[in-house]
Amino acid sequence: MALLVATKACDYVGVSRKSIIGVTMPGFGTTDRTYNNAINLMKALGITTKEISIRDASLQHFRDIDHDINIHDVTYENTQARERTQILMDLANKENGLVVGTGDLSELALGWATYNGDHMSMYGVNSGVPKTLVRVLVSYVATSGSLDEASNAILLDVLDTPVSPELLPPDENGEIKQKTEDIVGPYELHDFFLYYVVRFGFSPAKIMYFAENAFADIYPREFILKWLKNFYRRFFNQQFKRSCLPDGPKVGTINLSPRGDWRMPSDAVSKVWLDEVEKL
């Protein structure tokens, strides 16, 4: 999505797409599918392409902090995310450019980003766009005829790929093992919760009632309740990441930027909301 925005911006102002530097940074969890899609999409869109592996730098860092590479914990994952951000920031300094962030509104709401890793950029162009809308917009671009057939095919395959940070090694078949929605829950549910929490300030009971009716033919009640509880827990616990966001545009009716509509202390307590969820 961020790449599509950048190419469209260049087209609007008449600047060569070669001024965009796309960087793929393979790590321990990168699969052939996502790697090839990244390389082929950058080539199809006509931007400058760079490949910088993070494996050696991450291994060196593990040695520096005495971390066992066979322990696939949060240190293992966040090392990779922060190494990627360091590369992008330093490359931007070298090229006198800006790091355009790829994180979206849904990830910010759940805190599904590494603090000072992919959480950070110089401009968060997707920060006001929820994941469900990102999917709709990418699908629209891929089917509207605005790009060539090769780009369209790649975008459609990207949409068909499970959402993942790919920070854990693939499975025995070389497929993505770390699937975001298996860990934090379906984004269509979380985006639903987010809208009614932030836009209207509805209570957990009211949101649960709406969700049960909206998703009656998709998810059972227990499933919705499980992820509603997870939403409130993460939404409160992860505010500290939103308190220091890079600038980004407000696109829809809600935004979580501390410089826009959202004011929330990082030490806010979720007990009142979670107590109500427990009674549902």
From TrEMBL:
EC? 6.3.5.1
Any one GO CC term of the record: cytoplasm
Keywords in alphabetical order: ATP-binding, Ligase, NAD, Nucleotide-binding
Gene3D superfamilies recorded = Glutamine-dependent NAD+ synthetase, C-terminal domain, HUPs
> A GO molecular function for this record?
NAD+ synthase (glutamine-hydrolyzing) activity
* Any one GO biological process: NAD+ biosynthetic process
Domain named NAD/GMP synthase: residues = 16-142
Q: CDD domains from the entry?
A: NAD_synthase
> Pathway it acts in?
Cofactor biosynthesis; NAD(+) biosynthesis
This chain's protein is named: Glutamine-dependent NAD(+) synthetase
The source organism is: bioreactor metagenome
The organism's lineage is: unclassified sequences, metagenomes, ecological metagenomes
